[in-house]
Amino acid sequence: MSVLRTVIGTVTSVLCTAMLAYALTKRDLVGYKFWNTLFILTMFVSGGLIPTFILFKAIHIYNTFWVYILPGLISAFHMILIRTNFKTIPDSLIESAYIDGANDLYVFSGSCCRCPRRSWRQSACS
């Protein structure tokens, strides 16, 4: 059971964090500065152990499989690492994909996920 938790937790965490990082590389995102500030603040300020326990109990995931997966789904630190690597991808590469008819999901899975593999390994290992 612990292997399943580890595999599901790692895969979903890297995937969700990478999708969030890709979305936050877009400067035309509504509330771009707000979202970046929000995620940076969550890196420094946390809710605490007792409020987290009360929240898990209130949403009925206490003593379930998901209590191990959901809290680590998005990591602000890893999001900043992956976002920084996504910003190193040339705009011309992404623009040429859009000209060829690609949508955001295709650009994310095709161009962005294949280029910065180093940040994916850092995010999965720590």
Mean pLDDT: 84
Query: Count the strands?
Result: 0
How are helices and strands ordered from N to C?
A: HHHHHHH
Structural class: mainly alpha
Judging from the principal axes of the Cα atoms, what is the shape? globular
Kindly give the count of domains: 1
Strand content: under 5%
**Spans of 5+ residues with little confidence (pLDDT < 50)?**
none
In percent, how helical is the residue content?
Answer: 55-70%
Q: Span between N and C termini?
A: 21 Å
- Main sheet, how many strands, which sense, barrel? none
Radius of gyration: 17 Å
| Count of discrete alpha- or pi-helical segments spanning 4 or more residues | 7
In short:
The protein is 67% helix and 0% strand.
Can you put this structure into words, describing what you see?
- By secondary structure, this protein is mainly α.
- The protein has one domain.
- Helix content is 67%, strand content 0%.
- The protein contains 7 helices and no strands.
- The chain has helices spanning 2-23, 32-44, 49-58, 76-87, 91-99, 104-112, 117-125.
- Helix 5 (91-99) packs across helix 6 (104-112).
- The radius of gyration is 17 Å and the shape is globular.
- The chain crosses the membrane at residues 6-25, 37-59, 65-82.
- It is found in: Cell membrane.
- It is a multi-pass membrane protein.
